[in-house]
Amino acid sequence: MVLRKWTVLLLSSALALALAACGGANTAGSKEAEASGTEAAGSGAEESTGASGEDAESSGEEAEDAGESTGASGEDGSGAGKGEWSLEGYFTDENENFVSIIWMDDSDMDMHGWYVGCVLGEDFTEDSWGGIVEPEGETLHGTIPTFGSRGDITVTVTKEGEGGIVLSVEDGETYHLAEQEIPDATIFVTINVEGMGRIAYAEGEEAPEFDPEFPSQSAVINLAEPAVHTVAAQPDAGYLFVKWQKNGEDFTTEPQFTELLDESADYVAVFEEDPDWQNPVMNFVGNYACGDLHATVECFGNEDAWITIEQGTGGAVGAAGPADGKIVHWDLIGRLDTETLTVEYTGCPKSVVTYDKDGFIDTQEPEYEDGSGTITFSEDGSFTWHDDKSEDGKDLVFKWAAPAE
Fold it and tell me: At residue 80, does pLDDT exceed 50?
């Protein structure tokens, strides 16, 4: 039986922490990774002493409680006591949505109260939330922060049946989840990389899928009993796959292998730089012009393009700024599709730069930071710029130009 990954997402005052509630299973970007089933660090109940740890040389007044079994709030003043709620554990439904409920009393992390962590969807990052909520009678209620970009959510948790819960999202869906029993793992397999590349794995003999948006460089597979898995490696641009190592010894030179995982082991995919690699953007590096617009195309990393476009009285990109002048500036970064010779870019800024009388930058004010569009190169030494947001970049053709003096 393969063990599911359970994740408890904890927020401290300065950092969002991800703790594996099942013994440290941690596969980047994958909701489906397996886990061991041991309890999360920091998920235990209150400290047996209940003392706040005040210095013995203080005024002699009694130290405040920092989380006795009465459910009193910690020193952070959060006011999050246990209330009438008592159910802790890990819960799932038929769609593999996950919820963890844990009483937190961690002075180091400054967290005191009922912690609700959940993964409600396929994307482990974007569909994850976690935070402290307040007990309200026989329910838990509060707003928990996102770990992606989809915004915080307000949830209400109620008990359902024998050991089940209902999690209702305000202005959203309602989830009915049953308590999940997680057996202890006895086989611990780690997968890592040496060099620049990514890994993927899947249970069984089918080839695993690589996640292009959230590539994994490490994974942990924790099993309660032996199971067949297929593991694969893929080099990043500019690198070559060399071999797999198992427990420090050479294992195979094939990038993909299928293995019965029946004992704990450490696998490492080894990559090395490709001495013959050249960023394909190199074929288009240079200066371009279109009327009073000037552009510079440069390589960015092993496979991306960095294109700057400027409009104003300052001459070509890279020239000295105009005295008491102004330039409109775009920064475009994206990956070149070698089949279509097109660079698609998103999240790119446009700013207005002003110069003082000596030609030095005086101010640089952003106009927007979410530009998107395409740059398409032609074999004749030109490119066409289409920007989705700016009125200036509507299918303009830039031609090769001599660099600025």
Answer: no
Report pTM. 0.54
Question: What SS3 state is found at 283?
Answer: helix
Q: For residue 75, what are the β-bridge partners?
A: none
Kindly state the helix (H) or strand (E) to which residue 226 belongs, with its residue range: none
At 3, the amino acid letter reads L
Q: Cα separation of 197 and 274, whole Å?
A: 12
Distance CA 96, CA 32 (A): 9
| Residue 259 amino acid letter | E
Report the CATH number of the 187-273 domain.
2.60.40
For residue 172, what are the CA distances in angstroms to 128, 142, 167? Answer: 15, 14, 10
Give the tens place of pLDDT for each residue, 343-356.
999 999 999 998 88
Sheet holding 197-203, edge to edge: 197-203, 227-235, 256-261
Q: Concatenated DSSP letters for 137-161?
A: TTEEEEEE-BSSSS--EEEEEEEET
Closest by CA position to 155, among listed 133, 126, 125, 124: 133
Residue 295 CA to residue 315 CA, distance in Å, equals: 10
Q: Which residues pair with 113 in a beta bridge?
A: 104
Of 298, 296, 324, 326, the closest CA to residue 311 belongs to 326
DSSP secondary structure code for residue 280 in this structure: G
Q: Which of the four pLDDT bands, split at 50, 70 and 90, describes residue 242?
A: very high
Q: Is 250 exposed, middle or buried (0-12, 13-18, 19+ CB in 10 A)?
A: exposed
pLDDT at position 9 is 34
Residue 288 makes CB contacts below 8 A (sequence gap 6+) with 294, 295, 296, 297, 382, 383, 398, 399, 400, 401
Q: Which of 171, 155, 27 is nearest to 91 (CA)?
A: 155
249-252 β-sheet, strand order? 218-223, 187-194, 265-273, 239-246, 249-252
